[in-house]
Hints:
The structure holds two protein chains of two kinds.
Chain A: H1 27-50, E1 57-61, E2 71-74, H2 75-95, H3 100-123, E3 130-132, H4 133-159, H5 167-185, H6 188-212, H7 217-240, H8 244-247, E4 256-257, H9 267-271, E5 273-274, H10 276-294, H11 296-306, H12 308-313, H13 318-345, H14 356-366, H15 371-391, H16 402-406, H17 408-421
Parallel strand pairs in A: 1-3
Antiparallel strand pairs in A: 1-2, 4-5
Chain B: H1 3-13, H2 26-38, H3 42-66, H4 68-74, H5 81-103, H6 107-110, H7 115-144, H8 152-169, H9 176-203, H10 207-225, H11 263-280, H12 282-292, H13 294-299, H14 304-330, H15 342-352, H16 357-381, H17 386-400, H18 402-409
Helix pairs in contact in B: 3-5, 3-17, 3-18, 4-5, 5-16, 7-11, 7-14, 7-15, 7-16, 8-9, 8-10, 8-14, 8-15, 9-10, 9-14, 11-12, 11-14, 11-16, 12-14, 15-16, 15-17, 16-17
Amino acid sequence: MTATDARTPGPDSEIIAHEVVEPPQSLRSRLGSGAALVGVGLVCLVLFGISESARTQAEFVLNPDHPHLSVTLPARWSSIVLGVVVALLGAWQMARGWSRRGIRTVILVSLLCFVVSFLCWAVSGAPGTSFDLLGLLQATIVTAVPLVLGALAGVLCERSGVINVAIEGQMLAGAFAGALVASIASNGYVGIIGAMVAGGLIGLLLAVFAIRYLVNQVVLGVVLNVFALGLTGFAYDALMQPNTESLNSPSTFDPIAVPLLSKIPIIGPLLFDANIIVYLTYILIVVVDVALFRSRWGLRTRAIGEHPLAADTVGIKVLAMRYRNVVMGGAVAGLAGAFLTIGSIGGFSRNISSGKGFIALAAVIFGRWSPRGAIAAALLFGFTDAVATVLSFTQTPVQIPSNILLMLPYLVTVFAVAGLVGRVQAPAADGEPYVKQ
Amino acid sequence: MSSPKDTTAEQAAEPRPDRPEDRVTEPERQRRRGRWAATGGAGTVAVTLLAFVAAMVIGAVLIAVADPDTQAASKYFFSYPWDTFTAAGRAIGAGYRSLFEGAIFNPNTAANGTLSGILGPISETLVNATPLILGGLGVGLAFRAGLFNIGGQGQIILGATFAGYVGFAWHLPVGIHLLVGIVAGIIGGGVWGGLTGWLKARTGAHEVITTIMLNYVALYLLQYLLSVKGFQRPPYGQAISNVVDGNARLPHLLGRDLRLHAGLIIALLAAYGVHWLLTRSTLGFRLRAVGANQFAARTAGMSVERSYVIVMLLSGALFGLAGVSQILGTNSAITGDIDAGIGFDAITVALLGRGKAGGIVWAGLLFGALHAGGVQMQASTGTPIDLVVVIQSLIVLFIAAPALIRALFRLRATGGGVGQQIAKGWNG
Lengths: 437, 428
């Protein structure tokens, strides 16, 4: 990707009618990216395949209850083959150059090859070590759920033209209120409502200051994050901490197994044996994605995010809609916060969201402001995070320090953003206040 | 950001006499606005002060709510309402008094007549303000070029790590050691920030994503280093580095007893440097042009990409200096929380300072004072220091919405809000 494609139209390829004329890649960028791919291939080939430390067998257990579902790969040969594939893809890029659409697929395939060969190498460390693939995927879901919800919140706000940097603050408020309300009411479902109200309130602050007082929205988001961090920290120290028994000991949700669906091997225990917030997430994913592109509300939302003046001209109430969508977004982010407390570990602790809202924000931009893209980004992050966590407990051929492994999801995101996504185009009126004339 | 400005031209052509400000034509209004700015923006100062007052009032409510005596008295509020108010008043008075004593002047310790007793609170304020000013300059500089640097945390960590490593692993003569340490810190922060700029220039990767991710990478890198021999302090039980040599420490400014160190001088020099860069140099003009309109800047023959790399290098270097102040000045060994949240606090400092060097110095001093006072307040009255965080965010929030403050205090309208000319949206 070079600077020349600055005008590549937006995140939403569905509404682009005309063909995009691709400028040819410069020789330098072609050689550079090709050489990088060849390098990755050589790493797989030499480090994971040919080197001393690589062993022969890698066992992946899909489901501990069904041992026959496990997959055993010849570790060394898998790494060598995958490495050669990546190196050849890179060599082609250097010699002839892939098309711009092709290069995305190539990078994606290379990334996949790298991950598989890395896992083969890592698992083959000690004889008898097996890799719990199901556990890995479950950990992926657990990490991804709050990110997906946070990203949906971001999409809801930003598609209607209000930048939401305050996802983190909304999450934190939701996490706090969820734990507090669920403890007081001794009822998790009331806690969920409390969390969504709290997230929605931060959303309302965002909406009022952005829409009524025309405050710069990036500034506003940052400030609201600080505000939520300070307020929840203050209330935690002053109120919650002294009364932990009555104010901060909510019960968590039990997983609900969906009849029939939860019996499907692998997918069943992975997706359909989860708690209520995870199911709400599934519903929200479908609802937001369908509603945004297939409903009148969605068309109007996208209209006020792209060209509020035109939307106003045809009679859409721009400001009212922005208020509604931003508050809804806040409530969704509040639900993400609820997952962090009553959805998983129970009690609230200071700064429990620890930057997840920012990662969700990154997922929104990474996913080019589309729900599907954002979800894919959140899943990618969740997956690499799970790999890092699982591997830090696995005996790899060469012991990798756990802190280096924990960098993995963040590094992968940087590489993916730089290599796959590149320059992004936000909704045209995102962050611009609309003043009715 | 441009749509209200676009529409004002039409308003000027069709004046509506029903609202007083509409009677004035747009050029006239802009001229008046310029005059306000030229006279130091009296309206701006008033709004800033009133925002501070409003934030302190809300803070007072929080102190009262958190106070155990007030809570106890409120249980029989309807029988003896006055008890609740006196308890609340006492708590608020004690809280803000200790805030003042921690930040400006403490009569109790000053009674000893020692230098540290009299100047202790001011020294603490300045120590806290130093990295905030440096970080605020970093964020503000990036803002002016249209970039949003949330990566202060990572850049401080890298700066502190580089400077700290030079400080404890190398042994150089007096003066040279400190100089090399400072340069190392600048390089560390600059490289981490420049990486973001380079990624944006080369691939278009959005700086908000890359800086957030690089924060975590830096955090884990530091945690890794703190478990490596040669970096970790023997006997390897704690996650803390070796101690920086005396030669590499920034000298104390007010004697050994007070923590104030020469980092403050670096911060003030940096503020002057940033001011000069932005207002007097060709490079600064180019950066501001890119920040104002990257397409116009490109058309005028400026390299937008190079500007991104340069401004992120400089912004990272300023954060690197904040790291230097942390490790060679305030602390003497690297720990996992060496960044002390400055990366994010610096954003609010830059916003409060409206992205200008002078404003950032004042904003840094104010937040430094609030933080120093907050520590004292927590120690003597038990009010959580998070109160200070709430007050800080409220100040910036109110200043950003001058219309709200004016409505609250019934002021006449002048000038625009904070962040109107800085911090663009995603599309630059």
